[in-house]
Amino acid sequence: MKKEKDEDAPKRQAIREQIDENLKRVYTAALNEELPDRLRELLEQLKSKGLDKGGSA
Amino acid sequence: MTAAPPASFADPRDRLASAIPKLRAFAISLARDSTKADDLVQDTILKAWSNIEKFDPRTNLDAWLFTILRNTFYSSLRKTRREVQDSDGIHAASLSVKPAHDGRLAMQEFQRAFDQLSPEHREVLILVGASGFSCEEAAGMMNVAIGTVKSRASRARKRLAELLHLEDGEDMFSGTDGATQAVVMRTAVAGF
After folding, report:
1. Mutation target vs B (from A3, A8, A19; most B CBs, 10 A cutoff)
2. Residue B183 dihedral angles phi and psi, to the nearest 5°
3. CA trace torsion B98, B103, B107, B109 (10° rounding)
4. Residue A53 and residue B129: Cβ atoms within 8 Å?
5. Closest of A15, A32, A43, A10 to residue B99, by C-alpha
Protein backbone atom coordinates (compact mmCIF):
# COMPACT_ATOMS: atom_id res chain seq x y z
CA MET A 1 0.00 0.00 0.00
CA LYS A 2 2.39 2.67 -1.20
CA LYS A 3 0.66 6.01 -0.96
CA GLU A 4 2.14 8.80 -3.01
CA LYS A 5 -1.22 10.29 -3.92
CA ASP A 6 -1.64 14.03 -4.19
CA GLU A 7 -4.19 14.02 -1.41
CA ASP A 8 -1.44 12.98 1.00
CA ALA A 9 0.68 15.99 0.14
CA PRO A 10 -1.05 18.45 2.53
CA LYS A 11 -0.70 15.90 5.34
CA ARG A 12 3.00 15.40 4.60
CA GLN A 13 3.46 19.15 4.48
CA ALA A 14 1.70 19.53 7.83
CA ILE A 15 3.90 16.85 9.39
CA ARG A 16 6.98 18.51 8.00
CA GLU A 17 5.98 21.89 9.41
CA GLN A 18 5.24 20.33 12.77
CA ILE A 19 8.62 18.62 12.82
CA ASP A 20 10.51 21.76 11.83
CA GLU A 21 8.67 23.82 14.42
CA ASN A 22 9.70 21.34 17.09
CA LEU A 23 13.27 21.21 15.81
CA LYS A 24 13.47 24.97 16.24
CA ARG A 25 12.14 24.64 19.78
CA VAL A 26 14.76 22.00 20.63
CA TYR A 27 17.53 24.10 19.14
CA THR A 28 16.34 27.34 20.75
CA ALA A 29 16.05 25.64 24.13
CA ALA A 30 19.68 24.51 23.86
CA LEU A 31 20.67 27.97 22.65
CA ASN A 32 19.08 29.62 25.67
CA GLU A 33 20.63 27.33 28.26
CA GLU A 34 22.97 29.07 30.61
CA LEU A 35 26.61 28.47 29.68
CA PRO A 36 28.58 26.29 32.09
CA ASP A 37 31.40 27.96 34.03
CA ARG A 38 34.20 26.64 31.86
CA LEU A 39 32.64 27.99 28.68
CA ARG A 40 31.88 31.32 30.34
CA GLU A 41 35.52 31.51 31.35
CA LEU A 42 36.60 30.64 27.84
CA LEU A 43 34.28 33.32 26.50
CA GLU A 44 35.71 35.91 28.91
CA GLN A 45 39.24 34.90 27.90
CA LEU A 46 38.35 35.35 24.25
CA LYS A 47 36.78 38.73 24.91
CA SER A 48 39.73 39.98 26.92
CA LYS A 49 42.15 38.42 24.42
CA GLY A 50 43.55 36.33 27.23
CA LEU A 51 44.52 33.69 24.71
CA ASP A 52 47.87 34.55 23.15
CA LYS A 53 47.17 35.67 19.59
CA GLY A 54 50.72 35.29 18.38
CA GLY A 55 51.83 32.22 20.22
CA SER A 56 49.88 29.38 18.69
CA ALA A 57 52.82 27.99 16.72
CA MET B 1 32.24 52.15 22.49
CA THR B 2 33.69 52.72 19.03
CA ALA B 3 32.10 51.58 15.81
CA ALA B 4 33.11 48.07 14.80
CA PRO B 5 35.45 47.94 11.80
CA PRO B 6 34.11 46.22 8.67
CA ALA B 7 34.01 42.46 9.17
CA SER B 8 36.58 41.83 6.46
CA PHE B 9 39.21 43.86 8.34
CA ALA B 10 38.35 42.65 11.82
CA ASP B 11 40.26 39.78 13.32
CA PRO B 12 37.86 36.81 13.03
CA ARG B 13 39.15 35.64 16.42
CA ASP B 14 37.20 38.54 17.92
CA ARG B 15 34.02 36.88 16.71
CA LEU B 16 34.62 33.47 18.27
CA ALA B 17 33.14 34.40 21.64
CA SER B 18 29.76 35.30 20.19
CA ALA B 19 29.56 31.95 18.39
CA ILE B 20 29.82 29.90 21.59
CA PRO B 21 26.06 29.63 22.36
CA LYS B 22 25.26 28.54 18.78
CA LEU B 23 28.10 26.02 18.80
CA ARG B 24 26.90 24.64 22.10
CA ALA B 25 23.33 24.24 20.85
CA PHE B 26 24.60 22.34 17.82
CA ALA B 27 26.94 20.25 19.99
CA ILE B 28 24.11 19.29 22.35
CA SER B 29 22.02 18.21 19.36
CA LEU B 30 24.84 16.01 18.12
CA ALA B 31 26.20 14.61 21.37
CA ARG B 32 22.99 14.58 23.49
CA ASP B 33 25.17 15.03 26.53
CA SER B 34 26.05 18.43 27.89
CA THR B 35 29.50 17.47 29.21
CA LYS B 36 30.48 16.02 25.83
CA ALA B 37 28.92 19.03 24.14
CA ASP B 38 30.99 21.42 26.26
CA ASP B 39 34.15 19.44 25.43
CA LEU B 40 33.29 19.76 21.76
CA VAL B 41 32.75 23.51 21.99
CA GLN B 42 35.99 24.01 23.87
CA ASP B 43 37.97 21.89 21.38
CA THR B 44 36.33 23.72 18.48
CA ILE B 45 37.18 27.18 19.82
CA LEU B 46 40.79 26.20 20.54
CA LYS B 47 41.21 24.62 17.11
CA ALA B 48 39.65 27.66 15.44
CA TRP B 49 41.91 29.99 17.41
CA SER B 50 45.11 28.22 16.45
CA ASN B 51 44.08 27.65 12.82
CA ILE B 52 42.48 31.02 12.21
CA GLU B 53 44.71 31.68 9.18
CA LYS B 54 42.85 28.84 7.42
CA PHE B 55 39.57 30.73 7.70
CA ASP B 56 38.58 32.60 4.53
CA PRO B 57 37.11 35.90 5.82
CA ARG B 58 34.84 36.12 2.77
CA THR B 59 32.99 33.03 4.02
CA ASN B 60 30.62 32.39 6.90
CA LEU B 61 32.47 32.07 10.22
CA ASP B 62 29.62 30.14 11.84
CA ALA B 63 29.67 27.59 9.02
CA TRP B 64 33.43 27.19 9.43
CA LEU B 65 33.10 26.69 13.19
CA PHE B 66 30.20 24.25 12.83
CA THR B 67 32.32 22.27 10.36
CA ILE B 68 35.20 22.04 12.85
CA LEU B 69 32.77 20.98 15.57
CA ARG B 70 31.05 18.26 13.57
CA ASN B 71 34.37 16.91 12.27
CA THR B 72 35.67 16.76 15.85
CA PHE B 73 32.49 15.02 16.92
CA TYR B 74 32.62 12.37 14.19
CA SER B 75 36.29 11.62 14.70
CA SER B 76 35.67 10.99 18.40
CA LEU B 77 32.51 9.04 17.55
CA ARG B 78 34.46 6.69 15.30
CA LYS B 79 36.55 5.75 18.33
CA THR B 80 33.54 5.04 20.54
CA ARG B 81 30.96 3.90 18.00
CA ARG B 82 30.20 0.59 19.69
CA GLU B 83 29.54 2.25 23.02
CA VAL B 84 27.23 4.82 21.42
CA GLN B 85 25.19 2.14 19.63
CA ASP B 86 24.68 0.33 22.91
CA SER B 87 23.28 3.42 24.52
CA ASP B 88 21.01 3.96 21.50
CA GLY B 89 19.62 0.47 21.99
CA ILE B 90 18.75 1.21 25.61
CA HIS B 91 17.08 4.45 24.56
CA ALA B 92 15.07 2.77 21.81
CA ALA B 93 13.71 0.11 24.15
CA SER B 94 12.08 2.69 26.37
CA LEU B 95 10.45 4.69 23.61
CA SER B 96 6.73 4.82 23.09
CA VAL B 97 5.25 8.05 21.88
CA LYS B 98 1.89 9.05 20.50
CA PRO B 99 0.83 12.49 19.37
CA ALA B 100 -1.49 14.48 21.57
CA HIS B 101 -5.07 14.69 20.33
CA ASP B 102 -4.65 18.19 19.00
CA GLY B 103 -1.67 16.95 16.97
CA ARG B 104 0.78 19.15 18.81
CA LEU B 105 3.68 17.35 20.35
CA ALA B 106 4.88 17.73 23.86
CA MET B 107 8.44 19.03 23.81
CA GLN B 108 9.66 16.11 25.88
CA GLU B 109 8.13 13.55 23.54
CA PHE B 110 9.67 15.20 20.55
CA GLN B 111 13.04 15.41 22.27
CA ARG B 112 12.92 11.70 23.08
CA ALA B 113 12.14 10.79 19.49
CA PHE B 114 14.83 13.17 18.22
CA ASP B 115 17.35 11.46 20.49
CA GLN B 116 16.59 8.13 18.78
CA LEU B 117 17.83 9.37 15.43
CA SER B 118 21.34 8.66 14.19
CA PRO B 119 23.81 11.51 14.69
CA GLU B 120 23.80 12.04 10.92
CA HIS B 121 20.04 12.53 10.94
CA ARG B 122 20.11 14.83 13.96
CA GLU B 123 22.85 16.84 12.31
CA VAL B 124 21.08 17.41 9.00
CA LEU B 125 17.80 18.30 10.69
CA ILE B 126 19.39 20.82 13.01
CA LEU B 127 21.45 22.39 10.23
CA VAL B 128 18.68 22.81 7.66
CA GLY B 129 15.58 22.59 9.86
CA ALA B 130 16.51 24.68 12.87
CA SER B 131 19.72 26.68 12.71
CA GLY B 132 18.89 28.48 9.49
CA PHE B 133 21.69 27.27 7.22
CA SER B 134 20.85 26.70 3.57
CA CYS B 135 21.11 23.24 2.04
CA GLU B 136 24.12 24.52 0.14
CA GLU B 137 25.87 25.65 3.33
CA ALA B 138 24.99 22.38 5.05
CA ALA B 139 26.39 20.46 2.08
CA GLY B 140 29.67 22.34 2.44
CA MET B 141 29.84 21.60 6.16
CA MET B 142 28.94 17.94 5.77
CA ASN B 143 31.18 17.59 2.73
CA VAL B 144 28.45 15.97 0.63
CA ALA B 145 26.38 16.99 -2.42
CA ILE B 146 23.32 19.24 -1.98
CA GLY B 147 21.11 16.40 -3.22
CA THR B 148 22.48 14.22 -0.41
CA VAL B 149 21.58 16.87 2.15
CA LYS B 150 18.03 17.05 0.82
CA SER B 151 17.50 13.29 0.67
CA ARG B 152 19.09 12.78 4.09
CA ALA B 153 16.90 15.51 5.60
CA SER B 154 13.85 13.92 4.01
CA ARG B 155 14.71 10.46 5.39
CA ALA B 156 15.43 11.95 8.80
CA ARG B 157 12.04 13.71 8.90
CA LYS B 158 10.36 10.49 7.81
CA ARG B 159 12.12 8.52 10.55
CA LEU B 160 11.17 11.12 13.12
CA ALA B 161 7.55 11.02 11.94
CA GLU B 162 7.61 7.21 12.31
CA LEU B 163 8.99 7.44 15.83
CA LEU B 164 6.22 9.90 16.65
CA HIS B 165 3.57 7.80 14.89
CA LEU B 166 2.73 10.72 12.62
CA GLU B 167 3.44 9.11 9.29
CA ASP B 168 1.17 6.20 8.41
CA GLY B 169 -2.61 6.17 8.24
CA GLU B 170 -5.02 8.61 6.72
CA ASP B 171 -6.33 10.40 9.77
CA MET B 172 -5.47 11.71 13.19
CA PHE B 173 -6.06 8.30 14.75
CA SER B 174 -3.04 6.80 13.02
CA GLY B 175 -0.99 4.67 15.35
CA THR B 176 -4.05 3.30 17.14
CA ASP B 177 -5.16 -0.23 16.40
CA GLY B 178 -8.42 -1.27 14.76
CA ALA B 179 -10.29 -1.90 18.01
CA THR B 180 -9.34 1.48 19.42
CA GLN B 181 -10.32 3.11 16.18
CA ALA B 182 -13.71 1.38 16.25
CA VAL B 183 -14.33 2.70 19.76
CA VAL B 184 -13.29 6.15 18.67
CA MET B 185 -15.65 5.97 15.70
CA ARG B 186 -18.56 4.82 17.88
CA THR B 187 -17.84 7.60 20.32
CA ALA B 188 -17.79 10.09 17.49
CA VAL B 189 -21.10 8.77 16.14
CA ALA B 190 -22.68 8.76 19.59
CA GLY B 191 -21.75 12.39 19.93
CA PHE B 192 -24.12 13.40 17.17
Report:
1. A19
2. -60, -45
3. 10
4. no
5. A15
Contact A11, B96 (CB under 8 A): no
Contacts 24+ apart (CB under 8 A), B44-51: B44/B68, B44/B69, B44/B72, B45/A42, B45/A46, B45/B16, B45/B20, B47/B72, B48/B13, B48/B16, B49/A46, B49/A51, B49/A56, B49/B13, B49/B16, B50/A56
Question: Are A24 and B125 an interchain contact pair (Cβ–Cβ within 8 Å)?
Answer: no
Does residue B40 sit at the A interface (CB-CB below 8 Å)? no
Subunit contact B42:A31, Cβ cutoff 8 A: no
ipTM of the complex: 0.75
**Length of chain A measured in residues:** 57
Could you tell me if B83 lies within 8 Å of chain A, comparing CB atoms?
Answer: no
> Which residues in chain B are contacts of A53 at CB distance < 8 A?
11, 13
Q: What angle do CA B29, B48, B41 make, to 5 degrees?
A: 30
Size of interface A-B (CB pairs under 8 A): 85
pLDDT tens per residue, range B136-177: 999 999 999 999 999 999 999 999 999 988 865 433 333 444
